[in-house]
Fold:
Amino acid sequence: GQDYGDMWWYVVVVDNPNTDYVFDAFLDAQAFAEDGSLLGSGTTYTTVLSGRTAIIGYVTVEGGEMIDRIDVRVPEASTATLSPAAETGSFTVEAVTGAPDGGTGTSTGTPPGTATGTVSGRFADDQRNVAVTVIARDAGGGIGAVSTAYLETVPGDGTPVPFEAWFAELPADATFEAFAHR
Structure:
């Protein structure tokens, strides 16, 4: 989706089926025009724990060109780091809800909607600077908007921490899903 001006966002949902392996990874994205020409690229860094993770990235496309597709390169399996699940830990996101709040969008500075929920973690240590990627899907299941909320600390003992993510635009009848990652 187009954020503003020449800035476009993309979201990648990665499923790491490996219980005992994690990836400290750069996700490289390339945006292409309909004719196959490269319009721009971007790189996002994250730690991919076991299970599903969603990562938002950005690409700058100058000149008003329209993106036809984005290809994202995820890490090769051989770059995984052995990290037993019982020692690594995991995040749980729950109670994700959202709705329009009556705002009119970015022209007035009032976001038209928010999503809220909680994040808890089971880790040996408290987790700092946790990102919560929130995806708003339209009635057909397509991704219509994304947002990121940041939590300064998520306790490692499982105590839930609330988050709130703001959206400049929301699809009609939006449903929400959220993923926490470092």
